[in-house]
Amino acid sequence: MATTLVSRANEAAAGAVASNPRPTRRPYLHHVDLIRTVTFSLVIFVHCLTQTTDEFTSLPVNTTSLLLHFTRNTFFALTGFVLMYQNFDKTDFSALSFWQRRIKLVIYPYVIWSAVYWVVNMWLAGKLTEIPTSLTNFFYQLGWGLSGFQMYFLFVMLQVYLVFPLVVWLLRATAGHHLIVVGVSLVLQFAITATITHWNPPASVATHWWHHYATFIPYQFYILYGAVAAVHRQRIGTWLRGKGWWLFGALIVTAAIAVGSYLGGVWFAGKPVHDNNSAFYPTLVPFLIVAMTCLYAVGLHWAENRREHAPRFARAVKYASNRSFPVFLVHVLVLTLIMYPQSGGTSWVRDVIPQPWATLVVYLATLAGSLLLVEILRRLPGALYLTGRPRIPFRKARTDRRVASAPSTERPRREDAVVS
Fold it and tell me: Nearest-CA neighbor of 178 among 238, 234, 224, 239?
């Protein structure tokens, strides 16, 4: 019975097997490449924006950041989608084998880069000589994803990997009732965000309460949303077709609600311009859902209708998607080094380059520098531990370029498989 339910939920893979007498891998989801590329690019942009502006007093910057919080949640929805696509129909799925295979791709880079960022922060603070006596601080930061301001993403991802077997069990056990599961999760999401933004915890709880953003709990709906979307991707894809204007209208309306609520709080309720909990405003939830749905629809439309007609762009998307995770790991280091030169106590960027050009220049420089660093790291021994991706031998550079220019029907190598 379980096998029947699983097979029924993955019609696309079943169709591919039926049309080919030899077993094949699951169809490669090219739209996921575009979604991942856009998501990671915008996450990096937000970091560059906040580092090159006064995020604590600028209303336009915080309004922009408010809406771009959808990238954070898309990151986790994409994780749920990819993991479920790869594992839902596996009749021999094992939690232990899943953990052994997936966790190493994140935990090694997480520990290594947490150490790198901690050392860099000690250097910036002029405390390099205190490193041997400050290891307790390092392990504290390691335990909460605090070494770099993007490292909590990886910390949460590790938690998602730990609970993912339960998600597989849940969706298999509730086959035919996934809409109810998503609905319950959405109600819970509103309750969680309301608690985060409106509850003042007692002192005994407040010490650890502020770490809520580094747990999977505030993102539970988006993880499940992505996982359910993977199971029903064919039906969802069919439903999305022809609804571009409806989606655009929903995006505008929900964005207006989110921004209007934020501005109203600042102008009339005395709320601060910059709020560390802005990513968890309950009024932002509808926009987050619609925004990631719109991005999915755009990616699907591109993959089905535009990709084969723009091969250069398709190759660029595939390249960017393949490098996105290691670029995410290193970009804060590159950004820090770009912003480090000081002029009168502030970064030279703010004094020399006017806005909005400062943000644009730093963003492009961060992307270029990160890609260059990743190309080096991917070719070093131990690349898997440094970048979470397999090593690329130097001698295969030309071969990789030929593979990238191959016809779109060619199946990607295992190392190019969708990884989140």
Answer: 224
Listed as ranges, residues in the chain with pLDDT below 50 are 1-23, 408-420
Report pLDDT for 401: 57
Which residues, including other chains, have CB under 8 Å from residue 279's CB and lie 6 or more apart? 69, 72, 213
Q: Does 131 map to a domain?
A: yes
**Cα distances (angstroms) measured from residue 119 to each of 19, 124, 399:** 54, 9, 37
What is the per-residue burial (b if ≥16 Cβ within 10 Å, else e) of 45-84?
Answer: bbbbbbbbbebeebeebbbbbbbbbbbbbbbbbbbbbbbb
CA–CA distances in Å: residue 288 to residues 62, 67, 73, 113, 253: 16, 8, 7, 29, 12
Q: What is the pLDDT of residue 13?
A: 40
pLDDT for residue 349: 87
Tell me how far apart the alpha carbons of residues 154 and 145 are, in angstroms, rounded to a whole number: 7
Sequence-distant (≥ 6) Cβ neighbours of residue 319 within 8 angstroms: 404
String of DSSP letters for 179-203: HHHHHHHHHHHHHHHHHHHH----H
pLDDT, position 17: 39
- Spatial distance between the Cα atoms of 311 and 295, rounded to a whole number of angstroms: 20
Q: Is residue 19 part of a domain?
A: no
388: left (phi over 0), alpha (psi -120 to 50) or beta: left
Q: CA-CA distance, 191 to 195, in Å (whole number)?
A: 6
Q: Is residue 417 part of a domain?
A: no
The total domain count for the chain is 1
**C-alpha angle with apex 306: 419 to 403, nearest 5 degrees?**
50
Residue carrying structure tokens 């009168």: 344
pLDDT at 371: 97
* Residue 99 forms part of a structural domain: yes
Range of 181's domain? 27-199+213-387
